[in-house]
Amino acid sequence: MEIIMKKKIISAILSVSIIITSYAAVFAKPLDIPYSERPLTADIEGINSAINTLKEDLKKPNNKDKVFEDYYALLDIASKNGDTHQINYLELEKLNYDIPTSYSREFVNENIDNTVKYGNDIKMAVKSILDSRYSNDFKEYWGEERTEHIAQMRDNTEEVKEGKQFYDRYFELIDKNADSLEFAKLLNELIKKSSSQVQETTDFDNYLDFLYDSNKTGFNTEQVLKYCMDITEDYYYYVNKFKNYGTHFGFDSIDESITIENPLESLAYVKKIDPKISASYDYLVKNGLFFLGSTEKERGATAPMRFYGDAGIIVSGNDPMRVLIHEFGHYQSFLNTEISSEDLFFGEQYEADLQEFNSQAFELISTDCYEDIYGENAQGKKFRTIVTLMQQMSNLSALAMTETALYSPKFAGISDEELNEILKMSLGEKWYLSTPQFFTSQGNYINYSLMLFNALQIYDTYLHDKTAGINKYLEACSYKNGSYTELTEKLGLKSAFDEDAGDYLNEITNDIFKTEYNLDYETALDYFENGTYLGKVKPTSQRVSVNGGAAQTLYAYNSSDFNYIRIRDLAALLSGTEQQFDVEYDTENYTVNIITGRPYTSDGTEMREIEEIKTAGQKSSGTFTLMRDGEPVQPGGAMFINGWNCYLLRGLAEKGVLDLDIDYDAENDIVLISTK
Asked: What is the pTM of this model?
């Protein structure tokens, strides 16, 4: 994830009748200044001096050229101040993720406060031009849209400080190992505050809609929800079949004892990809712009420093090599791209969501060089990376759907306790550890997923034409300004919001596995999760009589002429008999517990006709463990099908899981169950 200042995109073509733009600094090439020599403290004296000079020159008549010179000087010092802010932000992230730093949190926080305060002072000084005798000159130079931008500027020091407080409070809770309810309180406070402010001051009733609109992403929550629902469940099943089939052939076999000793040194493989990327790597190493932590906390961040023409990277966690590759994809985007201090001041720089496209495309392209990085682990790492990114797209979409629901008006009155329980049920007991961006960067989950959608298209192109794939990646890196929709169109890619996007995603995913591994989905469907050949599974039904009673229809899944029934259906059938039992699920420990002698508690899903197969059956290694009164038992045949735990009826009887006699009335095609 990259750290980027919020801004609005300015697309107006300026009418320039006053040609004085040559005074503005243009950042095209990296300044080649080592990170250790860059200041962390705001140049307060320089900023105040530049502001005072402008104020004095605005009072003088016939002083237009000098005033414009002062204006450009302010923009240049604003750019440098912005990078000082970014450097401190990097140091703050080091502190948050236990990466070595020589600065205290108090020192860094004071510097961040100063860069925000004096950055706002510069903005207000520029705004004061509109009240001066040179107002018309600048209005003509800026054009209508930029003039409006200046007129609407306000001092947002307190607003930024307040936003950072939520960020800091999140990490304070992490550090003191707070329980989930404390995190729910913080999140609920953030949701309610953001939503109420938007509803009071704008025409939006949904904070995320406002966020997407103000960042000009090119989509809204309605489109987001449709996209999420299209791929969250079905695509995960789709990709999981490739994963299962690849596992069967050993494609993801990895020696976990082999680790990367020096990730930065191993990153040198990028020199083989393209000369521009090679130069970027050399610059990164020379200027010490990379920081690695051996902490267990997972983090990757790239902070752009546009005054210096580069960026800084921090990496920590269990797989620093992969995180570094991802972040280098961001880093490459911030080098060698011409941008002026005036553009920066008016917010024309890379969009956060577009940046994820660059990093994820680079991750996929880099799998082609895994031999240089992982040696004998290359094949397994490559397969796992490709599959993981595909599965991640669905996982991120699920998180995006959850986040969108949280900010919807219907959640406005939810209590902290209710919020905590909902998130625990859907995301696990420690939901707050897997969802930091709920607190620190709203809307990024959907950005990640959408950018993966596009990155997979780039990778599919690369597999068929490496030069074309790399060129598209570099074209995306150089794309300075615009929305997701605009970039997608520019690169000739399919939009995730198109009607047939889901089918197209399956198509290119199938093509990637077919091209790389000669795997296709139809064949993959015929395999168990553990690689054992299964054959086809199909929905079926069977009439069943319990203790001589009237025959009832029991729906089942048939594989190789054996019927696998849902455990809840059997519990409903036997309720009220000597062998009745209830069913309890433990989603944390992945167990299904049969509680004998207790009447069955219905959840409303029993004895219903079953849906078509989404996935081939899976042996019990891929399902919950079956328990009887808290003790593990062997059911004699188990599958996990379409999200259901299913068992062979005869297996349950013959293995003594349930005390049943099973017979079959061939003439009437009825299974006879006796509990006596």
From this structure: 0.73
